[in-house]
Design a protein that fits this description.
7-stranded mixed beta sheet; 5-stranded mixed beta sheet; 17 helices; binds pyridoxal-5'-phosphate
């Protein structure tokens, strides 16, 4: 790469963070399958433990395979540093552990992955971290939710399910006025379709399990530091702005500047809570990321073709996909995800609950399971699976009414995907 041009996205997806292994010449990043690393001498060990030198101690905190993954995702998102962990939920746990004290509040979008809604409503409450919900279709609801205890705002770029696109810049403006960071879960869009830092986000999180890994074969999560937030304001974020006795009194925001947040999540959160990613999974996810731009374009193009087909189908009542020109979120999609609106969409069956059960039982190419972001096309009928414990009215509020089917469109031939849906719809 010549020095006078910055590499493009596809080049970064293949190369960022990686170089041939210095000891063996291995071209592909090796799986450093080791729990611990030998110190050069006692002084070296002391400087590693005191955060005066960068280096590996123990795979719970850093690992060379995982380090390549972290650098690659940071480069793709345009962040200053990243921390990879065991799952998307672990990433969210460490972000909030770093930002919140017991009794603090954060504002979260009502349009979120169901697992995040559970995590925030139940487990986070038991830590004394209190979620306040706001509706991304009503930006003023975020403004109204701000209190002196608010420490962060959390949204998804493309929200799961239903392919809802959120006005990131408008919510970033609310966060900026309140002096709190905006966290964006960019799992459904990936940095290929949307880069939240360009729209004012301060922290990006992902479930690497989904499109970044992309092959349905490994769990992972990542936190990306945007590097622009001022953590020292009014001592609101003590883990970043107060001296740490356990590290000789250093102040992370002063010592680590524009990547202090990623460091704090690692040397406090990951160190103490422990959800480390395995080097094997980092390797698989790194391999997946090499083809991210090719896969995401294909996922989006296929999903749009499926949405256009379904909207004219006699068994289908409605289709929710921001990539469709008539969709309520299409203008936001054109602004935030101009290359395509991603792989996930929902549609409603005229035949209601029974038709939903019939469709998921009759598909052959689609897999009936609870995941998204695989190369394979996936289908689920939320009312009979993920949302079955809710009352009928709760189901409708969650976008999981009896008629709703969710698809995660794969990278197979679109003609085969559509033919499979057609034969299943014919059975309703
Ligand atoms: C799956 C998912 C998560 C949680 O990630 P895990 O890797 O399953 O822990 C978070 N957010 C979104 C949008 C997801 O789809």
């Amino acid at each position: 790469m010549s020095e006078d041009r910055l590499p493009g996205f596809a080049t970064l997806a293949v190369h960022a963070g990686a170089q041939p292994d210095p000891t063996t010449g291995a071209r592909i990043t090796p799986i450093y399958q080791t729990s611990s690393f030998v110190f050069e001498n006692v002084d070296h060990a002391a400087s590693l433990f005191g955060l005066q030198a960068f280096g590996n101690i123990y795979t719970r905190i850093t690992n060379p395979t995982t380090a390549v993954l972290e650098e690659r995702v940071a480069a793709l998102e345009g962040g200053t540093a990243a921390l990879a962990v065991a799952s998307g939920h672990a990433a969210q746990l460490l972000v909030f552990h770093t930002l919140l004290q017991p009794g603090d509040e954060f504002i979260a979008s009502t349009k979120l992955y169901g697992g995040s809604i559970n995590q925030f409503n139940h487990s986070f409450k038991s830590f004394g971290w209190n979620v306040v919900w706001a509706d991304p279709d009503d930006i003023a609801s975020f403004e109204r939710a701000i209190t002196p205890k608010t420490k962060a705002i959390f949204i998804e770029s493309i929200a799961n399910p239903g392919g809802i696109v959120v006005d990131i810049a408008a919510i970033a403006a609310v966060a900026k006025r309140a002096g709190v960071p905006l966290i964006v879960d960019n799992t459904l869009a990936t940095p290929y379709l949307c880069k939240p830092f360009e729209h004012g986000a301060d922290i990006v999180v992902h479930s690497l399990t989904k499109f970044l890994g992309g092959h349905g074969n490994s769990m992972g999560g990542v936190i990306v530091d945007g590097g622009r937030f001022n953590w020292t304001r009014e001592a609101r974020y003590p883990k970043l702005s107060q001296p740490l006795a356990e590290y000789n009194g250093i102040v992370l925001a002063e010592t680590f500047g524009n990547f202090a947040f990623a460091i704090a999540c690692r040397v406090l959160g990951l160190r103490d809570l422990g959800p480390a990613i395995s080097p094997q999974n980092s390797f698989l996810i790194l391999t997946g990321i090499e083809t991210l731009p090719l896969r995401m374009q294909r996922h989006s193009d296929n999903a749009r073709a499926v949405a256009e087909h379904l909207i004219d189908h006699p068994a289908v009542a409605w289709v929710s996909y921001a990539g469709l020109p008539g969709d309520r979120y299409h203008n936001l999609a054109r602004r935030y995800v101009p290359k395509g609106a991603g792989a996930v969409l929902t549609f409603g069956l005229k035949g209601g609950y029974d038709a939903g059960v019939k469709v998921v039982s009759t598909v052959k190419l689609f897999s009936h399971l609870a995941n998204i972001g695989d190369t394979r096309s996936l289908i689920i009928h939320p009312a009979s699976t993920t949302h079955r414990q809710l009352s009928d009215s709760q189901k409708v509020l969650a976008g999981a009414g009896p008629d709703v089917v969710r698809l995660s469109i794969g990278i197979e031939d679109k003609e085969d995907i559509i033919a499979d849906l057609d034969q299943a719809l014919a059975a309703t």
